[in-house]
Amino acid sequence: MSCSLLPFCHFQDLEAARDFLCPYLRQSGAAAAREIDKSPNWEDDGWGAWDEAETQEPVSLYVSTFITKTCLLSKNLFCWFNLLSSFHVAKTNEELSILYPAAVVTIDGFSLFQSLRACRNQVARAAASDVDTIVDHASVGIMTLSPFDQMKTASNIGGYNAAIKNSPPTMSQYITVGSNPFTGFFYALEGSTQPLLSHVALAVASKLTSAFFNAASGWLGWKSKHEEEAVQKQKPKVEPATPLAVRFGLPDSRRHGESVCLSPCNMLAAVMMTLEEFFTGCYTRTAIRMWKGYRDAQIGWIQTVEDLHEREAERWIFLLLEVAVSCYKIMGLNNMTSQGWQSQTYQICLVDPVSGSIKTVHVPFHLALSDKKSERAKDMHLLKKLSALLKAKPQIWVTEAKELILDIKYPATKKQALESILASERVPLSALSNITQTLMDTLKNQEFLCVDEGLLQFCANKLKLLHLYESVSKLNSLSVQPSTPLSDNDLAKLLRLDEKEFARLQTLLENYSQENTQTTIRFADDQDGILPVKMFLEYLECEKDMILVKKLDEGEYVALGSFFFWKCLCGESSTEEMCHTLESAGFSPQLLLSLLLGVWLYKEKDILDEPQSICCLHTTLSLLSKMKVAIDESWDSQSVSPWWQQMRTACIQSENNGAALLSAHVGHSVTAQITDSMAEKKFSQTVVGADTDSWEALSLDTEYWKLLLKQLEDCLILQTLLHSKVRTRTTRVSSLQAEPLSRLSVKKLLEGGKGGIADSVAKWIFKQDFSPMILKLAQQKKETESTEEPVEIDKNVSLENQGAETGMETILELLHLAYQQFPCSLELDILHTHCCWEYVVQWNKDPEEARFLIRSIDHLRCIVNAHIQHGIALMMWNTFIVKRLSAATYLMDKVGKAPKDRLCRRDVGMGDTAMTSFLGSCSDLLQTLMEADVSSDEMQAPVLDTEDAWVSAEGPISIVELALEQKHIHYPLVEHQSVLCTILYGIMRFSLKSVKPLSLFDSKGKNAFFKDLTSIQLLPSGDMDPNVLSLRQQFLMKAVSAVVQVQCTAQKARGLPEEAPLPAEKDKDWPALALDLAQHLQLSEDVIRRHYVCELYNYGMDHLGEEAILQVHDKEVLASQLLVLTGQRLAYALLHTQTKEGMELLARLPPTLCTWLKAMDPHDLQNVEVPISTTAKLVNKVIEYLPENHGQYSLALNLIEAVEAISS
């Protein structure tokens, strides 16, 4: 590698560019014709002519006014790029700086451009003083002094009593070179030395404007010679310069500065002088280093970037002295001035005079330091070369890689190189071992004091891991003669179970496997027991003689465990040799046990499909238990071994309950085997020849294993139940029900508290949306198996799903088995309580799902114990109901009718349909609460118990315990609230209008609503205001009329015959509710009954009216009301049909009856198509209930004759 020239840009036509920029340098037409075919020669043509023409260039190219009367020494263009990142240029600042013998003029580039277009330029001019001669200058840019520099400057200028501002001023810095001093530093305060052109224009506005436009006209080609001469005669006023004193300088009478060049970061400046060259700090104002001078030398700066992959890249700048080129001109492209380092590009470029292309000098970083001691740069170069080799084929670079890593000098870089090789996936194991061994041998052969112990230990550790990987891979590749599969009896003996217990274990695991639908993601190239060497090295680390596992995630941990033990668990590798190899390598038994259990518990599906793996696990666990420091030597039967406790902890935390149960059985068996061996050895020393085959030694660990086995079996049965589901469902599934259930573990159940088990089952019931009846049916399953009720069971259980009988039967069996395992935790009242709470919680998440609240109240009603029922109902009211009910009440009272859907969603958070159901559920909830309060006085509170295996459960208090802690309600207050709920429900259910629910109560009644139901409130008592009573009666009559109208509409929709009985609305008997409301609202119930009977006859439902008449007490008044209705029917039949027979019959009727019929208005009838025979029955009812001395009795008799005449 070496320095190289990289293309930067290219001028296609240098001559055209020069003519455009400087039109006064254009050649004449004839000369241009002679030179048209001649390519531009930058060495001969361009540079001298440009320099000579500067004095002839009109000042109007910069500003159409004089700046100073002295000659121009030099001018520089500074372009500063404010780089926010390496690739995005956010802002460009340009400045034209002109040097005169006694002044420096700076013109802002952007303002200059604008002024050339619209006479708005920004000009700043300063006169340099205290300097003999200035030949070159550089504009460093805008800077701000540090507080220390500010105080130092103030002290130098103002002395002891100098005062400073709170914030350091912003100033522009300029560096000049010349003589006395040969380097000077000038500072111009921002805002004080750069007057805007608008201020200057106050004096020369007219001259400046005309001069600008005249000059612009000349550029565009329409300016006449006469106009040009007139402009030249006008000499604008020259603005006086602002004096600017040199603040700092480097004085030396023998030295004369010639030129100055800023570094890319503008923090350093290189100065050429007559005697030598040096560079100085722009901000420190000190000379940093000097070199011996060279004749006709040139200076420049080049930057390079050190490419570091692991940390942020470092940028370096280099000063070039005497750049020897024969065919290139140096062209400076300066970037933005900044106090801090900014990413800069193309600081120095070379211009090719032949082709017109511009190139930049690229210096590779490792060649930046070319002296013999640049070992670090060389090492970095070798490391880069090694990284490039790693991408090639291994056969090509193995030998070269060893040479490169040996050539590296620094130990840290050697380690970095070796790490990059070991981390490569393309390097085979043999090459890794070869390279590592070679480096290690080289280090050992060095002198003792020169060897880096850290690098040597690193090589030794990696070599140890590579040898271990090779040994384990070899053991996994060797084929082992498969052993004879064990029979069920042999497996039962191995696990120390009898045949019945082993058969039960098999059944539980089979059910668990069938219902367990959990899937794991596997890729095509995944193979069990295979681990790339790169990952193997990343997972492990050596510490002294031990091998430790780094902190890994579950998948990585299982992959490492599979590499060691999966072939052994499958019976395809020698377990003894594997355990011996791992123990010899430095693995602790505890770490190996953790890896073994990790792969066993993770690969549950494969384990359950291969029962013979139980024998392999037993063998492996026995070998690990016999290792040194596995089981403490001081362990006895009366203490708990940390070894076995580690295994039990892994089983408790595992969510794969099938694999955990099997590993617990194996652990219990091995523990009992070791305990028996120790006890037998101790017992045989005291009693020689004793028979110990028929007994089992007791130990504390054995008892803990038995407890864990019971917990794991319970958890397995519960997990099997939660995995089960109905095969097909026709009901709509909510998004809340579609969310999967979390898997269970013994740890989760213990941390869930006493209600954790019932809560898990309640969540499963909610997901499946089972009817509450299924919970009772599962408990009675054994009694119903011998009866003819399965069809009835299916209809009630499967939620109207008739296609899932087989699935329901399995679910009933699993639920029944769960009842047996958890007789206390899954007692029916407790389970109904948790289901009730789960449904109402889910309803609160989505109030549009009104069926969730209905199902919650269904479970509430199924609770037998009134204490639990009372408590959970009160908790539901306070937590979820009262706030929404209050919002609904005030909304309905505000609009005076059943509100629209939009208003319901805005104020209550649900649509109008959902709110109707919600109000009905509120009424049911309060009714259930009152019934529970009455029943609780007749029964005792339940005693909550827990299964022995789960008494150690600790967690949040259960819902049942919270329910039993609730206070008793104030019954009259609940009854008062229930009346309001029923009224609200009626308004929404029948879309009643012109009804304000709160207007039906006085001030006491209104104030009592929505208060704590356990508090004592002042309720209405005594006589009620007649106006309120009138409003109540109007409301009830509206409600009754709406009920009858709905009944009639439903009857017609179903196509039922008129005489068929109408099934009442589900769970709601509105006529009875109306009577109950009348009682609570202090109204006459008989008035409501009579109105209900009249409405039934009005809608033509005479069969229901005949039944309702029996409930009326004052039948005489009812008969008078029905007599009018009968007259309306006859008037419609005789007067409004206009038939010949009707007219003849009307003529034969008594005049009194005719007059009365003509006064009837049949338009009030809701159903006029009633048979005359039905009306005849109604007239007979009227005659029956009217006394003979009644004033309308004779009229009723005439009606009978008329009806008979019509019928005949």
UniProtKB/TrEMBL annotation:
The keyword Cytoplasm appears for this protein: yes
Domain (Rab3GAP regulatory subunit C-terminal): residue spans on this chain: 592-1187
GO molecular function: GTPase activator activity
Record's subcellular location: Cytoplasm
The keyword Cytoplasm is annotated on this UniProt entry: yes
Main location, first listed in the record: cytoplasm
Rab3-GAP regulatory subunit N-terminal domain mapped to chain residues: 86-312
Top-rank lineage group of the source organism: Eukaryota
InterPro entries linked: Rab3GAP2, RAB3GAP2_C, RAB3GAP_N
A GO CC term assigned to this protein in UniProt: cytoplasm
Keywords: Cytoplasm, GTPase activation
Family statement drawn from the similarity comment of this UniProt entry: Belongs to the Rab3-GAP regulatory subunit family.
This protein's name: RAB3 GTPase activating non-catalytic protein subunit 2
Organism: Gopherus evgoodei (Goodes thornscrub tortoise)
Gene: RAB3GAP2
